[in-house]
Automatic annotation (TrEMBL):
Secretion signal span: none
Entries under CDD domains matching the protein: biotinyl_domain
Co-factor(s): biotin
GO molecular function: ATP binding; ligase activity; metal ion binding
Record flagged with keyword ATP-binding: yes
High-level lineage: Bacteria, Pseudomonadati, Pseudomonadota, Betaproteobacteria, Burkholderiales
SMART domains listed in its UniProt record: Biotin_carb_C
Species, as recorded: Achromobacter agilis
Domain ATP-grasp: 122-318
UniProt entry keywords in alphabetical sequence: ATP-binding, Biotin, Ligase, Nucleotide-binding
Annotated protein name in UniProt: Acetyl-/propionyl-coenzyme A carboxylase alpha chain
Domain Biotin carboxylation, residue spans: 3-445
Length: 654
């Protein structure tokens, strides 16, 4: 008997869209919820009904249990799908849904509570003979934690006991680093999960991050659907996922799958879930945590198995048994996913905000996203904007498809990691299948492999766009003018001057510095025209089409391959203020976000490496150091303030 015909999705963005479409394919009505900021979002428009659940701050609305339950009553929804993030692994939410007489699409609340606490989860699975990482839990005293770390042996990892996703995780190589990491880890864990409880684990640095997808029903059927390799990470958060793993031969896959099934049977698991393991160089694996929800990278498993995990989540929640057995699960070919994020890899993967000026999805592969032109990227949510998923007969085919996808689509108006992703999957270590979780820690992002500089075509396209070409009713320049490039790897502005030539071409003269004199490189654009929003240029006989978008009259974005460049008019390019007259250092916000804490006051003396404040954006906390020894002269912010990228935080007088 059907338990529900109307499903409320307690989430937003691409995951809400994914669930809505799966529910619709099963003939279910769907209900979206939204904050003020999301009133016109795609997930709201695609659902059959939508209910407003809150105003500001927007991210808090999706964690408001009472508002979501009221939305079920208003809409007639009899079931709730939590998606991932927000309340998806909140046992109290699952319990509240059940107590309201509704169906929670996921495991029972007591299972979520057990697996949601890393300390209790490790203890439970150790009893089920599941290998776990050596560590310690249930200790709140800092001195005892230090003693246990020395006994385990450095390096060690601190982790939030109540959650995952990289929040609250800190690596420590000695006692001093551990003492510094403890308050930061507790603060981030408390902010993300409502609990500052930590666990301690031995850090296995040269490891592969391997996770096993499981699917279980209420009738005792427990299956594993193979592994995903999620080793390419930054800040302990995944960027590239693939299946099968280059490091997992068939025999090891079966061993890990058997352990995952045994763990699920031991805890009475129901629904879709993931067990995460570390695989060391010797081939031994250790349980880290279990995600009692759908994973961001679930589509990778769907592509290699042909099993729609969201549909099966909904069928299991209806009480249906799985209609296939373990031996029926077949994996074909290779699948890979790239997480496209609003972040700047060249600056330590700092989150970025902005307005999407132009979004063109790549063709020929699966793209899970809620992106659209005009969408505002805020600091309130996770930085992930889209997922590019490719399937191929071979791993090499996937890499080729995804490389082309990074180059073939377009995302203008906010900086993203598309260039980085294209470079990452074509790095020799990745191509050889040898990437471990510490891969990026050993990379110099300023090196030739990772660095990107704008091509002559990109420079010329931006110069033409900012000069007003084409004028209405003609093809000539509106005027000659100066522009400045904002995204040069050495941090110096590149100034450009345009002049028209007798044959109709345009000469773009380039030089560095703040003066309009001196010799510099010249780019001659022999022909140009607009085509469906793109700019087609012929430079030195080479014809190329580039995507261009304007943010007002003084800012141009140009997509050149996998890189997006931001150009400004020279008149808007401000002089540097952070070292005026060599006497003071002006600290500016490296990202938009909220000030979590301010650790100094006007008049305090500080050292160069001393933390002076902490910012939070897109679920990431960043400690800001003074940068130079001196005295705090002008404190411009307080705890709780929202700041924008580049905003002055304080001045340190040297």
């Amino acid at each position: 008997m059907m338990r529900f015909d109307t499903l409320l999705v307690a989430n937003r963005g691409e995951i809400a869209l994914r669930v809505i479409r799966a529910a619709r394919s099963l003939g279910l009505r769907t209900v979206a919820v939204y904050s003020d900021a999301d009133a016109e979002s795609r997930h709201v428009r695609e659902a059959d009904l939508a209910v407003h659940i809150g105003a500001s701050p927007a991210h808090a609305s999706y964690r408001n249990v009472e508002a979501i339950l009221r939305a079920c009553g208003q809409s007639g929804a009899q079931a709730v799908h939590p998606g991932y993030g927000f309340l998806s692994e909140n046992a109290e939410f699952a319990r509240a849904v059940a107590e309201a007489g509704l169906t929670f699409v996921g495991p029972p609340a007591e299972v979520i509570a057990l697996m949601g606490n890393k300390a209790r989860a490790k203890e439970a699975l150790q009893r089920a003979d599941v290998p776990t990482v050596p560590g310690a839990q249930g200790i709140s005293d800092d001195r005892e934690l230090s003693a246990r770390a020395r006994a385990i042996g450095y390096p060690v990892l601190l982790k939030a006991a109540a959650g995952g996703g990289g929040r609250g995780m800190r690596l420590a190589h000695d006692d001093a680093a551990l003492a510094q990491a403890l308050p930061l880890a507790r603060s981030e864990a408390l902010g993300a999960f409502g609990s500052d409880e930590l666990i301690l684990e031995k850090a296995i640095l040269a490891a592969r991050h391997i996770e096993i997808q499981v699917l279980c029903d209420e009738h005792g059927n427990v299956l594993h659907l193979g592994e995903r390799d999620c080793s390419l990470q930054r800040r302990y958060q995944k960027l590239v996922e693939e299946s099968p793993s280059p490091a997992v031969p068939p025999a090891l896959r079966e061993r890990m799958g058997a352990v995952a099934r045994r763990a699920c049977q031991a805890i009475g698991y129901v629904g879709a879930g993931t067990l995460e393991f570390l695989l060391d160089e010797a081939g031994d694996f250790y349980f880290m945590e279990m995600n009692t929800r759908l994973q961001v990278e679930h589509g990778v498993t769907e592509l290699v198995t042909g099993i729609d995990l969201v549909q099966w989540q909904l069928r299991v929640a209806q009480g249906q048994p799985l209609d296939f057995r373990q031996e029926d699960v077949q994996r074909r070919g290779h699948a890979m996913e790239l997480r496209v994020c609003a972040e700047d890899p060249a600056s330590g993967f700092v989150p970025q905000v902005g307005s999407v000026l132009r979004w063109v999805p790549p063709s020929g592969l699966r793209v899970d996203t809620a992106l659209e032109d005009g969408l505002e990227i805020t600091p309130h949510y996770d930085s992930m904007l889209a997922k590019y998923l490719a399937w191929g007969e071979t791993r090499e085919e996937c890499i080729r498809k995804l490389t082309r996808a990074c180059e073939g689509g377009s995302l203008l108006g906010v900086r993203s990691n598309l260039h980085f992703l294209a470079k990452a999957i074509n790095h020799p270590d990745f191509l050889g299948g040898g990437v471990t979780t510490n891969f990026l820690a050993g990379q110099d992002m300023a090196s030739g492999h990772w660095r990107a500089e704008p091509s002559e075509h990109a420079v010329a396209a931006a110069a033409l766009a900012l000069a007003g070409w084409p004028v209405a009713g003609g093809s000539g320049l509106a005027a000659a003018g100066d522009v400045a490039l904002d995204d040069v790897s050495d941090g110096k502005p590149r100034l450009l001057r345009l002049s028209r030539e007798a044959d109709g071409g345009v000469l773009v003269r380039a030089w560095e510095g703040h003066v309009a004199e001196g010799d510099g490189a010249q780019i001659r654009v022999g022909a140009m025209h607009r085509r469906e929003g793109d700019m087609v240029l012929v430079v030195d006989g080479l014809r190329r089409s580039l995507r261009v978008a304007m943010a007002g009259a003084d800012e141009a974005w140009v997509q050149d391959g996998a890189s997006a460049w931001r150009f400004l008019r020279a008149t808007r390019f401000a002089a540097r203020e952070d070292q005026q007259a060599g006497q003071a250092r002006l600290l500016r916000a490296p990202m938009s976000g909220r000030v979590i804490s301010v650790d100094v006051q006007d008049g305090d003396s500080v050292t160069a490496q001393q933390t002076v404040l902490v910012l939070e954006s897109m679920k990431m906390e960043m400690s800001i150091a003074a940068g130079a020894a001196g005295v705090v002269a002008k404190l411009a912010v307080a705890a709780g303030d929202q700041v924008s990228t580049g905003q002055a935080l304080m001045e340190v007088q040297q």
